[in-house]
Protein 1
Amino acid sequence: MGTRENRFQPGKSHINRMTTAGVQTGNTGGIESPSHDRLVYITTCFIGHQVEVQVLDGSLFTGIFHATNAEKDFGIILKMARVTKAGSSRGQKNISDSVQKPPSKTLIIPGKELVQIVAKGVPVTRDGLMNDFQNDQLHDIMIDSSISHSRHVDLERELEPWVPDDDNPECPELDNTFVRHWNRGWDQFEANATLFGVKSTFNEELYTTKLDRGPQMRELEKEALRLAREIEGEDTQDLHLAEERGIHLHDKFDVDEETKYSSVYRGVDDSGYDENEDILDPQNCQTYGDVSDSLPNNGSQITSRFSTVGEVQSTHFSTSNDFHPSGALDDPSIIENNQTNQQLAGSNYTKQDTEKHMVYEQNHTSKSEESSFLPNKESTDTGLSATATAFAPTNVSSKAQEKTRSNEVSSTSESGNAAPTAASGPGLSPSSSMGSLTSEKSTLNPHAKEFRLNPNAKSFVPSSPLRAASPVSDASFYYPANVAPAPQMHGMPVGIGMGPAFPSHQPVIFGPQGTPLHSPQTYFHSNGPQYGQQMLLSQPRQVVYMPTYPPEMPYKGRDF
Amino acid sequence: MDGISGGDDFAVGCVLTIKTTFGNEFEGQIITYDRPSNILVFQEGLKSNPQSRRNIRLLKANYIKEFSFLGQSEDPLDLKNCYLDLNSLQSKEDAAVRKAEIDVERIGVGVTAEAQSIFDALSKTLPVRWDKTVIVVMNEVRVSSPYLAESVTGGIPAANERVRKVLELERRRLQTRGGGQ
């Protein structure tokens, strides 16, 4: 039992008694009664806390609780106290007058004046006290809001949505951007010149492949437009695409602006590969539609891939002579046998257009034809024998497709094929379909159009003796042992250092008469083995040269 | 208004509604009653979690005008969890006092609320202090009542100009905000 003290001080004696939770003998309500202890405990918890004290005349004082003499009359000492509400004895004053006087450093309220003490948010438990302490420590870190004293000027404004000023007649309505057709006749350069006198030096060809505006342009353009319309008219679940195309998705639901225009990914996004996958077939239709429309769906991945590639390739072939026919293609059993195909392909290097045409016509109607397309194609294209086809088929074919597409791009114009009449298929913009072929489509395109040879296609005659260029370097090449692939870069004139040989179906594109325009660039396809370079030359002549591969060319590939 | 005798009647944990002689009404749960001082300790509000801070009210029992018994609940104080750390309490008090002193500096004595809000607005970006009823900015520029652009005096022209501009901006902002309310 500690000494009685007039002033309440954090007497350890009392506290000790509290912490030991000892119950005092006698419950007469004496000073040492548990009730009293509780009172002392609670008031001790008040120390440092902001409290509001009401006194006899009704005034309210707010300040930091400092002490009380709990032993006596329970007077209160507050620090930094000020009057928040004046009682009747002082007359009615409003709160703003409270700032008339600075707060008292120390305010003593006698016990008999005390009516009540109110403290909000007092931690009374051990954990609460600890938390409080920690929080207080944190407050020493100046947070921005306390630095800016924003609590003093925290009036908020009612936010209103933005409404544009009177519409400037010169500026096209923002809302109408998607309403009008894309080619609404707006020429930005023209507008700029008239409005601001700025002369444009824009040359489209600096940024994209030069279009060949020759006599065949019209048809290519038509085809491209048709494809574009088809794509743009496609149904989609993607909100943004739908809005562009004027499809009203979720019309009945109230779709708010955030859903419509935010870029935050909130749900299933079908604008990725899903769409590409969907597109793949339609693209096939279009791209390859004209090429071969009688491709049966054999469900075999390999063959289907090959067939599609074959179709594409065939379009090129229409312009070149070096289609090589595969005499043995008539045999359906070849489908599953790559090796055989390769052999056949390898052995079927011919240079006669007619032969090729014939072979292709034959090949059209059977699976084996398709499967042989690829080997044929690739070998003719690149000088590699059909071993190229023996790679992981999907990769190969996808690469093939991509490459062919890019080839098409480079070789033809963006809008289409060099031989539109024969194969109006690949008018597809290459970029859209690139890289989307990783999906394993195991079905042949039932809508693919038949390949039609274009007899008017220019046939390539190499101007210099064929010479094997650098050996096949790509490690990913897989050559069946007994294949004799023709080295790539046949027909490349001397002087062009083509490092890695073309792995497959990369038509080497030359300028007229075999003059290469510039070194090929390397294109590394991320998901497949690296096939070496991909020619992306764009020529005024949209001709693809298929080098002829004399069978006697020595095999320069690597032996694996 | 007689003191309620028989303090033992006030069992701990009782929930009562109290009306004081000053007209306050509140409802709370008894934590304790101390007879010598005649003080009732109430806990108000619901206990959302055991560690939550509580609203405590100490009331001298002789100011209870009327009360009604609502129910009996358990002891709001968990005796096992009672703990006092005097050091932390002391530092809490020191910190509070410090903060209050800082706040005091910010509040002008004998100034209107408008002046105070102007002071607060200026203090967001400029160092300001009160000198009686004059706002002293950057220790050189003085803004006296009525705290208009014309009332800005002192300091080098650049500083004076700056204070003037800020003052006008803040006034405008206060006006729109005040109007928007």
Protein 2
Amino acid sequence: MKSRESWLAPYVARYFWQFAIIVGLGAIALLSAGALMFTSGALISKSALRPENILMVYVPIVGVRTFGITRAVIHYIERLTGHHVILRILSGMRVRLYRILEPQALFLSSRFRTGDLLGVLADDVEQLQNVYLRTIFPAAASLVIYAAIVIMLGTFDWGFAIAAALYMGFLLIVLPCISLLLTHRKNRAVKRERSHLYQKLTDAVLGMADWTLSGRHAGFIRSYEEDEAAVARKDAGLRSWARWRVLIGQMTVGLAVVTTLYWAGGQYEQQLLSAPMIAAFVLAVFPVMDVFLPLSDAVERIPQYRSSYDRLHDITARGGGDDGNSVAAGGHSGADSRMMKDAAAAAKGQAPISFHNVSHRYSEAEPWTVRELSLHIPQGHRIAVLGRSGAGKSTLLKLLQGALIPGRGAVTINGVSAAQYGEDIPRIVSVLNQSPHLFDTSIAHNIRLGRRDATDEEVRQAAKAVMLDEMIQSLPLGYDTPMHEAGRRFSGGERQRVALARILLQDTPVVVLDEPTVGLDPMTERELLSTIFRTLEGRTLIWVTHHLVGADQMNEIVFMDGGRITMQGSHAELMNHHPHYQRLYRLDRPGAPAREKRLSEIV
Amino acid sequence: MGRSLMKYSGIRSVLLVTAVLTLLQTAAIIGAAYWLAETISALFAGEPLARQAWSMLLFLLAFAARHVMTTLQQKAAYRFASATSAAMRRELMEKLFRLGPRFSSVKGTGNLVTLALEGVTMFRSYLELIIPRMAGTAVIPAIVLGYVYWLDVRSGIILTLTMPILIVFMVLIGLAARKGMEAQWESYRSLSNHFVDSLRGLETLKFLGQSRAHASMIARVSDKYRAATMRTLRVAFLSSFALDFFTMLSVASVAVNLGLRLVNGEIMLFPALTVLILAPEYFLPVRMVGADYHATLNGKEAGEAIQAIIDEPLDDEPARMLKQKVETPVAENVGSMAGALPFARYAAAEKPTVSLTLSSVSVQHEAEGACSLKDISLHIKGPARIGIIGASGAGKSTLIDVLSGFKTPSGGTMNWSGMPSGSEGNDGGWRSGITYIPQQPYIFSSSLADNIRFYMPDASDEAVRGAAAAAGLAELAGQLPQDIHEMIGGGGRPLSGGQAQRVALARAFLGGRPVVMLDEPTAHLDIETEYELKEQMLQLFRNKLVFLATHRLHWMPDMDHIIVLRQGMVAETGTHEQLLARRGVYYEMMTAQQEGLH
């Protein structure tokens, strides 16, 4: 509960006065509606007494006009101020969420496999504005009005003030509480079942080919409709209660009106109240009670916010300590940081990499993902890494980037432990992976992300090197074309080229290629690979790949399985000594070299 | 907004019921105002409280009746809305299945799922709101106004004049707000998208060493976004401000006007009070329409989006178009045996003799567009292994789609014979003879066993285990805590690409269908997995009619017959050796892969 408040309480404290103003304005706007009817009632009854002088009703006339205008004006101001403050809070929350996620960036994709969690989190932050605008502010304003009215009535008659307090309290507190109690469980059930429907429907749409071919789709639709009907029944129950709730609320209003009539009439008979006040009090009951009617609805929303809170809270909790071990400390102390800057600058020219007897596992309970691995990669060396999924390739890359600290052994770049480079590692190691993100800005901006201070000419040179210049120039806005427009025109290979241009500007001695050609057709793959190898001449390349196309361009090929290196050597060595390698190589180059003879024989 | 509503069944009766309820409600509103005004003016005139019990009771009854009417209206609208939206969803689902998997992948799975769940709910709220609102705005203001005129003409005139002013302002401001939005739409879109874009690109930013610095960028863009939003809101809120302002001003004017004439003795207290009580009621229906505007708009748009999919033209009926001849139900007994026997038995069962004839089959996506398949004529008799190759865009996947029945050719005919008959309905009984293995088979969110027996829901665990072993899944199953009953897919343990492919393979082994379609089944897998899977797939291919579309030429020597596609047409056909000897397109593709990178 306490941690849940951490996305709420601090903001209430920090923005207390702004909140107070918003709530105050809200209360005034709502009260104005009541005051309008009050003064109107007073005005016409007083006029009905036919005073000698029109000035006798001057005050109520002014009151009526003023309240008629203030209600609308204040309400407008209140809404604007409310949104202004809330949007400012949201800005802060976005930065906060970003700062929490940023250190875990490299682990996000493996941790949140299901769905687009990042998109969901961004929505959660947006959702939080409704907590304030739809629940907290209206509830607080109603409380203020409640207190104000009870106190005001108390100056007339304590007995009636208590009666009014009970009526209003019923709408303000009792009915919302009953409502929350009654609907809480059902709401949760509906939500749970709906998320089940979501999964089921996703299964249906993604697995449609299978449903159709298996001839089971009619059965599926039937079963889906049954599930929908079950949710619909629960939902109908909730809606039925909502209708009852409104009806009960309105009946309360009706009784309150009659009570007020009875009280005002009695007071008038005893000469405690003047005649015009009867209409004034009675007519004001409607708008005042209207203030409290929507509260049950506002309170019923609370469970809806809960999942958003829970997700944000989970992220916050995880942000603190990671999975127990291994995440590199982000910041360094001043002197330390300067030293690392020097180390990074030194590694900029020469960055030999060494894995010395490295083992790693994510926790004590899990198996080793990398075992006793030793590998030495001199500057400019090109190495291909192959293996099935789960062979330890991605752990190897994370160790190299210093994102994981090896449980045993050491990973060094230019003699310094990889993890020690911390935030400076992108100056030494750059990464081209399967799906580099292209941001929703211009093409030029996307390329310039490699080095922010790159000139336009440097950006163009980079694009030229990856053979995109001509294509970009042909776009109507050239380099200023927004990516989301260009993105549609860019093929998979071209998107990788944009990312490659970025890496050229980043200009690091070591480049990690993490399956950059998966999903591309063979022609595009070969063209992209030759561009990559041509433009990255002289850099150390660590290329995780699933095919052997281009393997002969590597100095060394490493096969991994179960965290260990199972086969290692240059293409020529492996071809000569490992029949298994020959078999695999033949898949990529059918006919070569064993079949080459046959090919030429036939031809 | 009402016209498109009229086509839903049951709308007339629900509108009639709502109209009658609204009439009664209006009567109750007037009655409540009447008796309340009467009680107040009687008390005002000094009559004793005790004599007012009767009119107070009548007020209370009228007031209660009014809200009971509202409840009944809502109930009727809800019932109609849920029935209509449920019917619409059913239609949508049926249609999606008829449009097939290609349509879904073009539209986006997420979009469709959201539309079927959230969209239908929004559409329901739209119906639920629009029916009482329509009746309310049509009936209540008119009758209330008539009664006000009858009581006091001048107040009637004030109210009459305010309504058009109010509506004109509301519409004008609404238009201005929309224009303002549209003017800055582009910058607004990118601002609102910036945060989620940053989160999605976080890993990339980290690789580029920009992720720390980016936090200040988020703060800056967030502030810009806030400023842009506030600019829009200032105008957007004006619309409800106008609504509020003119209503309140109108009520105030009525009150002041009544007051002044009361002073002059031109009107009595009772009618004046009644008018004053009724004045807010006159505006209430319009204000409610304003308040629900966005909800109704969203729901309406969702409804239109759903209707657009329902109205999407089917290319045409596959069953009608493709004259199917179901001649010999050879494979039928194979299917019925599958549940009882371990798969190994029927893998070796009688050879099904399936044959396929395509005569000048063409596929054209858009009426004007280029053909993605052109004039394909083939005759193939199974069992045989048919390789389909060609450059990207040559039409390999389209051909597989046509053969599997996911796409209907725009011209030509396709005849299957020797396929098992029956299965469901008339939409292509021949489909029940086909196993389809795509590049990324879908893993359902259920147990491993249920995934494997997807095509054979009645298959025994023993048969499932047999198929799993044949597909190389025995080792995986052995490692799972619950063996083959472990939950996999979206709601359970995720599988790697190779494992998913093996599940598809196990499905095919278990199903034992005579025809197997494969669309690029191994290109995305690591080469060791590919090597092993190839061995197992070749086992599956025995005694079957297999169509394998791929870029991976290593499959070709294992094929009995190769179809080389180029630009939607058959460039050449033959065996691996024949095609090499021809030195044509196939030979070029082979030699291109011989060369290293350059």
